[in-house]
């Protein structure tokens, strides 16, 4: 009887010791994860992201299809991108960009409502969220990825300015097959520098962002042409964009 009690006490002691050890590993992991990710985000406040997981993934997809490897991108600083591109992005993707803190809760509510009726996960992403997932995360759609997206969105909202978020967004976003950023898109579609894009050309490029591998700003379908019209209409309605 006494030995049974001792065995039970020993087992309880072992379980408690194991629990403490696991908790120490969890705390260590969380400290390392937060430290590394915060440092990563702060670094990209000053250093331009050289490549994204999406770019690499698309490159391998092209190779698998028998095409040449292609990551066409050329960084342009904020002031070297046409104002029309910035206005078009805000008008089409996130009209509360300068006022929100990375999340548009009205859009999120609409997305949750749609997701309840659909097997496909639909996002309600702001420009900050799109920047976070493009720069720091892998391609795909899942609730786990949305969780990491929210975490990195909070970090860039804390450590970056809205100006920096827009600058990074317009340099890394996919704008065609192997085409990333405003400069590469401007050259590929209109044979000019990103600074020289007109408002109509900017709206045309932004109009294809929901499906840049399917749509074209220079050979638009009726749907894309109508989307460009709506973007330009919203651009005129926007007040001053104070970055």
TrEMBL record:
Pathway: Cell wall biogenesis; peptidoglycan biosynthesis. The keyword Metal-binding does not apply. It comes from the Bacteria. Keywords: Cell inner membrane, Cell membrane, Cell shape, Cell wall biogenesis/degradation, Glycosyltransferase, Membrane, Peptidoglycan synthesis, Transferase, Transmembrane, Transmembrane helix. It is a single-pass membrane protein. It is an enzyme of class 2 (transferase). Peptidoglycan polymerase that catalyzes glycan chain elongation from lipid-linked precursors. This is Biosynthetic peptidoglycan transglycosylase. The lineage of its organism: Bacteria, Pseudomonadati, Bacteroidota, Sphingobacteriia, Sphingobacteriales.
